[in-house]
Amino acid sequence: MPLKIPNPRTPGTRNAALPSFEEITTQHPEKSLLKPLKRQAGRNFTNRITVRHRGGGSKRQYRLIDFKRMKDGIPGTVMSIEYDPNRTSRIALISYRDGEKTYILAPIGLLPGAKVESGSDAGIRTGNCLPLRLIPTGTLVHNLELVVGKGGKLVRSAGAGAQVLSREDIYVLIRLPSGEIRRVPADCRATIGQLSNVDHKNVSWGKAGKTRHRGRRPHVRGSAMNPRDHPHGGGEGKAGIGLTGPKTPWGKPALGFKTRRKRKSSSLILRERRR
Questions:
Q1: Which SS3 state, helix, strand or coil, does residue 134 take?
Q2: Are 252 and 165 in contact (CB under 8 A)?
Q3: Residue 253 belongs to a domain
Q4: Is residue 23 one of the residues assigned to a domain?
């Protein structure tokens, strides 16, 4: 997806690099696959703010995405490529032979009219979903399962693609987009191809208002606050933070602090993303 650079006729377009949306084929989503989406504004079930700087923004409806891809042996046809306001990659509307319609994540090169399948008998084609043990080494995949039958959990953002490295007995070695190499059960499923909207990381909205439309509120630097409000606050003039490392407003380390829980999956990681 190339970006479009508008003529700098206003301050808001002077530094903007916006999505072109040229791969989108329809502006009307499938109504049977829409669901109301309540705004949380960064609050949890007790109504406490757990994620700061969230709120407002345009109204959205949730698109029901098929992450499991369990319709084995039933071919489907891509009807359209659509924009999803709830995720960075594009989505594809699939119409199966039995009449059911679903949304899937759209990889690069998946066009309207293409055929997609799932299951052990599916071919190695973009958009097909099959077990890892049947995918050749070197293939790029997305929507990667970690537990058989639970649906894809990893590699679901725009431009992401994991690479199948090798097979080890009941496991398959996968290189994730972060650089982490881990074992995944060979019966877990993945979808062939790299996800669409690769240039999402290069988008520059150009003005603060477009960020507000996306539900992001302004944030203030900790070094601009008072000491009572943030560990970085205080000092005469433009001072440093006065700490060995940056902290959150609650005094927890903000960089280099390991947040991954020690679970059984740690034994499946061969190389961490931070070498």
A1: helix
A2: no
A3: no
A4: yes
State how far Cα 43 lies from the chain centre. Answer: 21
Which has the closest alpha carbon to 214: 206, 223, 225? 206
Give the per-residue pLDDT at 85: 94
Q: Would you tell me how many other CB atoms lie within 10 Å of the CB of residue 40?
A: 15
- Kindly state whether residue 26 falls inside one of the protein's structural domains: yes
Q: Which long-range contacts (CB under 8 A, 24 or more apart) does 258-263 make?
A: none
Structural domain for 52, as ranges? 3-201
Number of domains in the chain: 1
Asked if residue 230 belongs to a domain, the reply is no
Does the structure show a pLDDT above 80 at 266? no
Cα 152 to Cα 144: distance, rounded to the nearest angstrom = 5
Taking the CA of residue 242 as centre, how many other CA atoms within 13 Å lie in the half-sphere pointing to its CB?
Answer: 12
142/157 Cα distance (integer angstroms): 9
Place of tokens 């891809």: 69
Question: Going by C-beta distance under 8 Å and a sequence separation of 6 or more, which residues neighbour residue 219?
Answer: 52, 53
pLDDT tens for residues 188-241?
999 999 999 999 999 999 999 999 999 999 999 999 999 999 999 998 888 889
